[in-house]
Amino acid sequence: MPELDLVAKLPGASCLTSLVPYKNLRSFPPGHSEPAWCVAWNPTRPLLASCSTDKTVRLYSYHFPANTSTEANDIMSRRSVKPVFRFLAEIPTAHKRTIRSIAWSPTGRTLATASFDSTVGVWEEVTDAAEGIDGAEHTDDEDGDVNMGNEGPTEWECVTTLEGHESECKSVGYSSDGALLASCSRDKSVWVWEVQPDSDFECISVMMEHTQDVKALAWHPKEEILASASYDASILLFADDPDADWGPFQKLQPSLPAQSAKVAEDLIDHPSRPVRATDVEDADRTDDTKSDNDEFVIPPLKEPETIWSLAFSPCGMFLASGGDNGGIRIWARGGHSTEARWTEVAHYQAHDPRACFSLSWTESAESEAHDLGRLASTGADGRILVWKVTKTDETILTSHLSSPVPKVEMTVLAVQVQAHSIHDINSIAWCRRLVPEDADEGSASYKRAQLAQQRTRGLLATAADDGSVKVWLSEV
C-alpha cells in the first residue's frame, strides 16, 4: 500500500553526521528544542530551512551521491539512493518570540522570518566571494547540486527588520517575481512591502479588511495576486488597482458540504484512509443501523470555521484551502483577468475532525491534460495525505462568474499516519527547484538546475510540535 518513504529525520546542531534511515536515528535529539512551525525549501540551492518557538532558524544542506540515476521517474533508483542531509547552520535570530513563518525569495539568496514579536526579519548570507555556497561555479558536483559536505560554518545577517504590525506576525511570503513581500498578523492586517535595492523595503499597502486574526498568506504562482486566510472564516483575494492602491477584489466564504475522499485502489483497505462522509440525516440513526463506514459525520457548514492554510495550483487557476474541521476546499478561477471571480468547486473530507494546518501544491510528472498536480496536506491528526487533483468534464456556472469553471476531483494516492509520532504537524512543503526562465538552455548552469529539479521531484518536508523536521519521498 502506498505510503511515504522517510528519507531523513534531520538532527540538531550538535549532530553533523549524514542522515541514515529513521530506525537508526531514534537516539538523536529533535531539530529544534521547541515546536517547529514552518519548513521552506530554497528554490535555487540545496538548502532546507525550518523555524521554531525556540526563536532560531536552522538550515540543512543536501546532495545526492555521485553516479546515481537521473531519470525523473526512476522510482526504484530514487528509493535506493536518497539525498544526504547535514546540519549547515543555525541562525540565532534577534526575534524575541516564536518564529512562526519563513519564506525564501525566488532567487534563493534572501530569507524572511515572521515572528510573534510583531516584526519581520530579512536575512542574507555573509560569504567570501571565493568561498561559501554561493560559489556554485567551483563547488557544483557533476550530479547537478552543490555538495556542501566540506563547507565550513556559514553566517547569516539580518539586513532589515520590518516593523509596523501591532501583534503577532503569522505568515510571510515573496511574490513570484520577488518584487513584493507580504506579511499578516493577529492585528487583522495584511501588509505588502515593495522590495527595493540595498535591502530596503517600502510598505505600499496596509489592508484591514479581515475582522479577525489573519492566519496564512499565499501568492499566485505567476501574477501579483495575494490570498489571505483568517479566523473570520473567509479568504480575501488582493490585487493592485492601477487607479488606486492594493485592495481586496473578492471575499471567499466556504459553503459546500464535505464529500467523501476518493482513494486509489490499493488504498481502499488501508486502515487510515479518509473515512466516508455520510449524509446529514445519517447522524440521527441508532448505532444498530449504522454501517461500518459511518465512523463520523461531516455535515454542511453551519458555523464559520477558521481557515488555516492556502495553496495555489501550479497553473494558477485553482486555490486550495484547509479548514478547522479538517476538510480541503478547492476554488476555481472564472477567467484569466486579474480580477476574475473565483468560486468553490469542491470540498473533500481529509483530516476530519482535526484541523488541516498546511497545504502544498506541486506539478505532476504526468502530462495528462486534466492533471492539476499533487496536493500534500497535513494537520492536527498527525497524518500526511498526498492527493491527485484533476479537472473533470463537468462545469459550474454561478451568477458571479462570466464563464463556466470545471469541477475538480481529488484522489488520495498516499497516506502516512503518525508521521511525527503523536504530534501535530504544523507545516508541509514540496521541494520545488526552479530553472531560471532567462537562462541559456545550453549553459552548464541551466543543465544543473534542470537536473536538480528532476532529482528533487517528490521530496516533501514536514515540521511538527516535537521540534523535528522530516523529509519524505512520494512515489506518486
UniProtKB/TrEMBL annotation:
Protein name: Uncharacterized protein
Organism: Naganishia adeliensis
